[in-house]
């Protein structure tokens, strides 16, 4: 069985747990850990877990709300960490004492019973990667922090059972916000973050009868609203707004089974 849970998602920090259970063995991958150690521990505790229950960490890119305490967590709990070489270099090429693995586009990684399939995305980081995770029976896509969809990216999301997808901002709210012009251009640009309309287009493109869960993530607290996101999701999937799920910065989401 494959399941996942956001521990929190937003500009203040992002972390997602992916868990696979088969034959009495459970494997857990933490995708990003964009919080301090104490806060991450508290969020894990709310999920009924501790850092020692995690098999590995995958860092998607070097921005602080994603890499967070990865180095400190690895040293304290002797956890394996995966990231691209570009991400590692962008964060100062720190020493992980032999527990760092380099991920790259198209190269699968096995974390216990979870097969991790990284793919490149357009974002303003040195070598950003997002993920497809599978236990062999079900597949989850984790897709945040990108400016636009590419044909390659959409192909990597085909046939998913669940998708955690960035719905970062409402374009009108961003345009009318107090953000300085350079930040508006960065967030709304081709290497920034997905607007609700752009995210909805991705959801519509990959939607099929077997997609059980679409979880909206990385909502901007200044330039978005959950009700606007749920409306965009519902229109994309042809479903009711009450069925749409969003992860928030404080609590993330509940466990979602695939």
Can you describe what's shown?
Helix 8 packs parallel to helix 9. The protein starts with a strand and ends with a strand. The strands form 2 sheets. It has a 7-stranded mixed β-sheet with strand order 6-5-4-3-2-1-14. It has a 7-stranded mixed β-sheet with strand order 7-8-9-10-11-12-13, with helices on one face. Strand 3, helix 1 (about 35-45) and strand 4 (about 55-60) form a beta-alpha-beta unit. The protein has helices spanning about 35-45, 65, 70-75, 85-90, 150-155, 170-175, 180-190, 195-205, 225-235, and strands spanning about 1-10, 15-20, 25-30, 55-60, 80-85, 100-105, 110, 115-120, 130-135, 140-145, 160-165, 215, 245, 255. The mean pLDDT is about 95. It has one domain (about 1-250): Metallo-beta-lactamase, Chain A. It has about 260 residues and is α/β, with parallel strands linked by helices. The longest helix has 12 residues, at about 225-235. It is globular and about 45 Å long.
What count of helical segments does DSSP give? 9
Kindly report the name of the CATH homologous superfamily: Ribonuclease Z/Hydroxyacylglutathione hydrolase-like
How much β-strand is present in the residues? Answer: 25-35%
In total, the number of strands is 14
Order of helices and strands: EEEHEHHEHEEEEEHEHHHEHEE
Lateral strand order in the biggest sheet: 6-5-4-3-2-1-14
Q: How far do the termini sit from each other?
A: 7 Å
Q: What is the total domain count?
A: 1
Provide the CATH topology.
Metallo-beta-lactamase, Chain A
Rg result: 17 Å
Largest sheet: 7 strands, mixed
């Amino acid at each position: 069985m494959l399941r996942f849970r956001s521990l929190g998602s937003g500009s203040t920090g992002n972390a997602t747990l992916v868990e696979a259970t088969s034959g009495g063995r459970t494997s857990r991958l933490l995708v990003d850990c964009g919080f301090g150690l104490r806060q991450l521990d508290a969020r894990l505790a709310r999920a009924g877990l501790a850092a020692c229950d995690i098999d590995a960490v995958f860092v998607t890119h070097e921005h602080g709300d994603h890499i967070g305490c990865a180095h400190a967590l690895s040293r304290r709990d002797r956890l394996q960490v995966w990231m691209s070489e570009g991400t590692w270099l962008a964060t100062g090429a720190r020493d992980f004492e032999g527990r760092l693995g380099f991920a790259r586009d198209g190269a699968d990684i096995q974390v216990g019973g979870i097969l991790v399939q990284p793919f490149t995305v357009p974002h303003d980081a040195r070598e950003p990667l997002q993920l497809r995770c599978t236990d062999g029976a079900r597949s989850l896509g984790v897709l945040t922090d990108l400016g636009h969809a590419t044909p390659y990216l959409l192909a990597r999301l085909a046939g998913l059972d669940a998708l955690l997808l960035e719905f970062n901002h409402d374009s009108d709210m961003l345009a009318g916000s107090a953000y300085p012009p350079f930040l508006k251009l960065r967030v709304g640009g081709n290497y920034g973050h997905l607007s609700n309309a752009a995210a909805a287009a991705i959801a519509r493109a990959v939607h099929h009868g077997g997609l059980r869960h679409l979880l909206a993530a990385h909502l901007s607290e200044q330039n978005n609203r959950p009700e606007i996101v749920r409306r965009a999701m519902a229109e994309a999937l042809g479903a009711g707004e009450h069925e749409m799920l969003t992860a928030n910065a404080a609590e993330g989401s509940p466990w979602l089974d695939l």
